[in-house]
Amino acid sequence: MNYMYESFASCTSIVYENENGDVVLGHNLDYYFTVPMAHSIVLVEFYKGGKMLYKAHSVAGQIGVFTGLKPDNYAITLNQRETGDIETHLKELFINRVYPVIYNIRLGLEKASTFIDAIGFFSNVELGSPCYFTLCGTKHNQGAIITRNPTNVSNITTLQADDGGDGWFLVQTNSDRDLKDYEIYDIRRFVGENRMRDIGRKEVNEGNMVDEVLAKFPNNNELTILSSFVRPQTGDFNTTMWI
To answer: pTM of the prediction?
Structure first.
């Protein structure tokens, strides 16, 4: 279970900033064995010295987390990035003893205090597998998608809410952002982007992001276990289970 991300994970992540300056992170968790997985999902609060450090989604018995929230600071979630080189990933995990990606999220939530610190940590930490990290802060334009190779950054895309276009939101699934829709078979990212445009920055909120994007096919599909949204400004961590 602690290496489940390295075998398969097919998710949708969204970060947006509305006209009021609220920055919100949304996420769909897709995975095989949906029913037993759904029955094992837990929302955990991590404490140190009597103070809560962060909240996170995990699976009972797992040492890592998928989505984490550090109240008043930032939130982060994970999407798998395919490279086709699973032998190298397994070597890193089992021979070179690199931590699984989901455990590195937990380490980041413990070590990185602010959104800027988190960008630095998740850009530089050594990983066993490539991935996409989606981060959400509390201030203007504090949203980013970090496309990671195991040892370095491939790309960082940030919110550009003042560009007069679509820069107020970012949608990530499981393909690199420089690929066009006709270059990949998975249409989830492009459908999600179109639906966010349809909602618009003026009308968007946590409810219609879930109802109109995360809850609809193809972003919600036979592998979707849950949809969640987190808002670091308020500490909200809301989850809808579909199983």
So the answer is: 0.93
Q: Where are the domains of the chain?
A: 4-241
The answer to whether the CB of 191 falls within 8 A of the CB of 214 is no
CA gap 45, 154 in Å, rounded: 32
CA 125-130-132 angle, to 5 degrees, is 85
Tens-digit pLDDT profile for residues 66-105: 999 999 999 999 999 876 555 555 656 666 667 888 999 9
How many Å apart are CA 156 and CA 38, to the nearest integer?
31
Asked if CATH classification 3.40.50.300 holds for the domain at 4-241, the reply, yes or no, is no
Answer whether the bond into residue 218 is a cis peptide, omega within 30°: yes
